């Protein structure tokens, strides 16, 4: 995994133009079975990729924290929401709450998430490869090919399974 993670930014860069063209065509005419195919590709990838050997998303990018996330996590720490915000969060250029620093403060030894049961919605949904109408988040997905090895592999498998 370590070698793949080192190579990933360059591999993703090499595929960037090809991926942009592919998703542009896909968005124009999405196949009817795209949700079904993506679910299959997502499940096949995560049968062989173990996030606990990676954690690159938690190490390099943090999630957004919604108000509901802040309420839930601060309650878990028996803190007031504002106390939690002041300790861990900042507001980014899009006016969203994000972590003050990466790697994520809540990433523990052996890549376990210390707040797994109450983690932000964005963490639960990452890397979004099993969401419906996957073609609609192509810019985010192309960005994620350089962060998440599973996304890189899924996009490669997708191009083979749903050629354009
Ligand atoms: S909250 Fe947990 S899952 Fe989310 S980035 Fe931090 S360590 Fe990773
Ligand atoms: S979601 Fe992707 S980047 Fe995050 S730990 Fe799993 S494989 Fe790694």
Written account of the structure:
InterPro entries: Puta_zinc/iron-chelating_dom. This is Putative Fe-S oxidoreductase. Pfam families: CxxCxxCC (PF03692). The chain is mainly alpha-helical. The chain folds into two domains: about 1-60 and about 125-160, no CATH class; about 65-120, no CATH class. It is about 55% helix and about 5% strand. The protein is built from eight helices and three strands, in the order H-H-H-E-H-H-E-E-H-H-H. The chain has helices at about 1-30, 35-50, 55-60, 65-75, 80-90, 120-125, 140-145, 150-160, and strands at about 65, 90, 95-100. A three-stranded antiparallel sheet has the order 1-3-2. Helix 1 packs antiparallel against helix 7 (about 140-145) and helix 4 crosses helix 5 (about 80-90). The mean pLDDT is about 95. Bound molecules: iron/sulfur cluster (2 copies). One iron/sulfur cluster (SF4) binds near residues 58, 104 and 106. One iron/sulfur cluster binds near residues 57 and 150.
Short summary of the structure?
This protein has helices at about 1-30, 35-50, 55-60, 65-75, 80-90, 120-125, 140-145, 150-160, and strands at about 65, 90, 95-100. With about 160 residues, the protein is mainly α.
Task: Name the descriptors.
single chain; 164 residues; mainly alpha; 3-stranded antiparallel β-sheet; 3 strands; binds iron/sulfur cluster; Puta_zinc/iron-chelating_dom; Putative Fe-S oxidoreductase
